[in-house]
Specification:
about 120 residues; alpha/beta; Oxidized Rhodanese, domain 1; 5 helices; 5 strands; globular
Length: about 120
């Protein structure tokens, strides 16, 4: 993946935020947590695709198809699994070290399902 150093499989939250921020971002932030976690709080602009659905063969959201993926979960465990699964499908994917916990701790925005300030569940 040309966005990241050669051989990178994981990125820190600041790098994840930098390469997925804004409408012209070079990569997509893909949140693989479950619905209740997503509803409680997620990164603005992230796309939702639960690991459970991806593991069952669900396709990526249309806006993520064919784009580099930065995969995030709560702590980094599920995102590692999802990134490996997506890479095996031929996608370009890295996961975020520390997940949404580190994302929020670094001061990056978290919004709920209504666009208000959210929390990491």
């Amino acid at each position: 993946m040309s966005l990241f150093p050669d051989g990178a499989h994981r990125v820190a939250v600041d790098e994840a935020e930098r390469c997925t921020r804004g409408a012209d971002a070079p990569a997509v932030l893909l949140d693989v947590r479950e619905q209740t976690e997503w509803d409680a709080g997620h990164a603005p602009g992230a796309l939702f695709a639960p690991l459970s659905a991806l593991a069952d063969g669900a396709p990526l959201p249309a806006a993520a198809q064919g784009r580099p993926l930065v995969v995030i979960c709560r702590s980094g465990n599920r995102s590692q699994t999802a990134a490996r699964l997506l890479t095996a499908r031929g996608e370009r994917a890295v996961d975020v070290v520390g997940g949404m916990r580190d994302w929020a701790a670094a001061g990056h925005a978290v919004v709920d399902g209504r666009g208000n300030d959210g929390s990491v569940a």
